TrEMBL record:
K(+) binds at N63, D123, S159. Residues 15-213 form the YjeF N-terminal domain. PANTHER family: ATP-DEPENDENT (S)-NAD(P)H-HYDRATE DEHYDRATASE, ATP-DEPENDENT (S)-NAD(P)H-HYDRATE DEHYDRATASE FAMILY MEMBER. It comes from Shinella sedimenti. AMP binds at K412, G413, A414, D415, T416, G441. This is Bifunctional NAD(P)H-hydrate repair enzyme.
């Protein structure tokens, strides 16, 4: 059976609960610290065989405690070490005090450390317990080390990174590598924390998985294990209507490309039928570029209402290149009736900027049927208070937005978060940097629509679409265009 640890995310708060539960179940907490420190020391020796000296920077809490174990282990391995502490080591408590007592070497103040060629820094200043911004002298030390060529191996998290949010609290080490324990923390995946973490190693210090799972479970890394069980069964012989019918709204004659990209992505992603709903004026532009995607004229509410008499038409994408906010609001209103599902993207999101509640009211009832795909700017239009609240992590912003809208929110970026109204949230990590290209969002909207049309629940449809988008981006490679991205979609099916 596959372990959940690779995809589990635990906040520092969860990790504290894990600690307490582990102690309550009889595990020695100092034993955990000893294994953590030994693992970091082993990593240091393996990664930096040419180090002339290991400099261990120890903080005032248990992260510092890990550091004293590292120092003892590296000295026992015969390497040259120096230890610099923030604060008085005599003030250490609990396991950290035990680790310090076992170290028995000399300790200099943090401010006395000046990077020198051949050093490798082991950063054990702060981990899960960083609760506020760093003081000016610590910031100065971190910045001096970052500016030097001295590599940094971080214990648990690069000091200065907030483990809950990934934010930099004043300054943070740019680590070459980080060793964390049991599972990843949001700060390893969310930006800018992800950029500061370097290569991440996850070391099992022996906390039973049942304890981890009992404290976590709502948030995780976006991977097939989270949604594979609801992927549409590929029958091969399946009737095209079984694989669902997706309808995508085209923009006006001057902006037809975005809608077509969504429609073509939807078809490539397995929707049985895809229809582009186009105003008459845009018909010839659309017809000139489409073959397998069907075209239907929709000029206004009357046409759409007539179309909605077909009960098989359950899934819509509205927004890419759409332009007309007033019309988008009316179309969303019509679609919301019945059990229909809507992917609202781009201009479709912006259409509700003056009255987001109007949108939320449309989809307030029942299972989520609305998927919102905002980037940060669009998110701020619907959820200005959440966007402004710098105490929230991107995961928390997504969770709150999903709860408020009773929709699934795909908050896009290099660290895309997918969140559901019930509090589930996944952080995506497979998107290559070159995926941020023109039309990429249109392709994603079509992908989500295709997964919805094939009957997946909204959260899983959204998460699997984001993952598949990332994999296709990797397959298409650097220099991809929206077209090559669509072509690459089919190629990733076998690994889902
Ligand atoms: N989870 C596990 O199973 C295991 C976890 N282990 C390890 O424990 C680590 C977590 O330890 P931790 O909770 O003691 O927190 P840590 O990061 O050392 O910092 C707390 C100290 O820093 C202080 N402080 C905070 N912010 C500050 C600031 N801006 N500027 C200055 N001071 C600041 C804070 O002071 P206070 O806020 O209380 O005044 C307190 O003294 C975890 O990352 C991992 O390495 C392993 O041993 C194996 C088992
Ligand atoms: K650290």
């Amino acid at each position: 059976m596959q372990s959940h640890k690779e995809t589990l995310l635990l906040t520092p708060e969860n990790m504290g609960q894990v600690d307490r539960a582990a102690a309550a179940s009889g595990l020695s907490s100092y034993g955990l610290m000893e294994r953590a420190g030994q693992a970091v020391a082993a990593c240091a020796l393996r990664r930096f065989p040419g180090a002339l000296r290991f400099v261990i920077l120890c903080g005032p809490g248990n992260n510092g405690g890990d550091g004293y174990v590292v120092a003892r282990a590296l000295r026992a391995a015969g390497t040259e070490i120096a230890v610099h502490a923030l604060g008085e080591p005599a003030a250490l408590r609990g396991d950290a005090a035990t680790a310090f007592a076992q170290f028995t070497g000399s300790v200099a103040p943090l401010a006395d450390y000046h990077p020198r060629s051949g050093d490798v820094v082991v950063d054990a200043l702060f981990g899960a317990g960083l609760g506020r911004n760093l003081a000016a002298d610590v910031i100065a030390t971190i910045e001096a080390i970052n500016e030097s060529a001295v590599p940094v191996l971080a214990v648990d998290l690069p000091s200065g990174i907030d483990g809950r949010t990934g934010a930099v609290r004043g300054a943070a080490f740019q680590a070459a590598a980080t060793v964390t324990f049991m599972c990843r923390k949001p700060g390893h995946l969310l930006l800018p924390g992800r950029m500061m973490t370097g290569d991440l190693e996850i070391f099992d210090i022996g906390i039973p998985e049942r304890i981890l799972l009992a404290q976590g479970g709502k948030i995780g890394v976006n991977a097939p294990a989270a949604w594979r069980h609801v992927l549409p069964v590929k029958t091969g012989a399946g009737h095209k209507y079984v694989r669902g019918h997706l309808a995508v709204f085209s923009g006006p004659a001057t902006a037809t490309g975005a809608g077509r990209l969504s429609a073509m992505a939807g078809l490539r992603a397995g929707a049985g039928l895809v229809t582009l709903l186009s105003p008459t004026a845009a018909l010839s532009a659309n017809a000139a570029h489409l073959t397998a995607v069907m075209l239907k004229v929709v000029n206004g509410d009357g046409d759409l209402s007539a179309l909605l008499e077909d009960v098989r038409l359950k899934t819509f994408v509205l927004g890419p290149g759409f332009g007309d906010g007033e019309r988008a609001r009316r179309y969303a209103d019509l679609i919301a009736s019945g059990e229909r599902r809507l992917v609202l993207d781009a201009d479709g999101i912006t259409a509700f900027r003056d009255d987001p509640q109007m949108l939320f009211d449309l989809f307030a009832e029942g299972e989520p049927r609305l998927v919102l795909t905002p980037h940060d700017g669009e998110f701020a239009r619907l959820f200005p208070d959440l966007a402004e609240d710098s105490t929230l992590s991107k995961i928390e912003r997504g969770q709150k937005a999903a709860a408020r809208s009773n929709g699934v929110v795909i908050l896009k970026g290099a660290d895309t978060v997918i969140a559901a109204p019930d509090g589930r949230a996944l952080v995506n990590e497979n998107a290559p940097p070159w995926l941020a290209t023109a039309g990429s969002g249109d392709v994603l909207a079509g992908l989500v629509g295709a997964h919805l049309a094939q009957g997946m629940p909204a959260f899983e449809a959204a998460a699997s679409a984001v993952w598949r988008h990332g994999e296709a981006g990797r397959t298409a490679g650097e220099g991809l265009t929206a077209e090559t991205l669509i072509d690459a979609l089919g190629g990733v099916d076998h690994i889902m």
